[in-house]
Amino acid sequence: MAVSTEIQAPRSGRIAPEYTRHGRSKGNFEMGAWLFMRLSGVVLVVLIFGHLFVNLMVGEGVHAIDFGFVAGKWADPFWQVWDLSMLWLAMLHGTNGVRTIINDYAEKDGTRITLKTILYVASAVIVVLGTLVIFTFDPCPAGAAAELLPSFCQA
Predict the structure, then answer these.
(1) Which of 63, 121, 64 is nearest to 95 (CA)?
(2) Distance between CA atoms of 56 and 64, rounded to whole angstroms?
(3) What is the model's pTM?
(4) CATH number reported for the structural domain that contains residue 132 in this entry
(5) pLDDT in tens, 54-73
(6) Residue 147 phi, psi (nearest 5)
(7) Backbone φ and ψ of 107, nearest 5°
(8) Which domain holds residue 72?
(9) Cα angle for residues 116, 117, 123 (degrees, 5° grid)
(10) Structural domains of the chain, count
(11) Cβ contacts of residue 74 below 8 Å, gap of 6+?
(12) Residues 6+ apart with CB under 8 A from 65
């Protein structure tokens, strides 16, 4: 009995023609996306651990986190940019990862396009809303009823 040393390609002959992909992604885009995942991952580790350290270890720690803590933190442009960077990088990093999973597992073009459209719309909505919250957050809005305002607001 002869032993064959030839290894079959994965999925060889198992994919029906209607499921084969016709348009391939550009190699440069995929290489850029791969590189972005590595670099953004490193930056996110620094941003997240800095965020956790300041929120949980500095001052009174977790016991100090309340509405006033967030209001005070977001009054400083440094923390607005820090949190904005964390939001944008996390969303782009996660969206790129899910995009890769969709490309790997969605076999029909229509399914892939639908899933990626939902992904991009959801990511854009979260980024836009998160950015608006960070830059328009006002703990003491003018004209609000005094009983609804936090104790540190001037009535």
Answers:
(1) 121
(2) 9
(3) 0.74
(4) 1.20.1300.10
(5) 888 887 888 888 887 888 88
(6) -75, -15
(7) -85, -35
(8) 26-138
(9) 85
(10) 1
(11) 80, 83, 134, 137
(12) 55
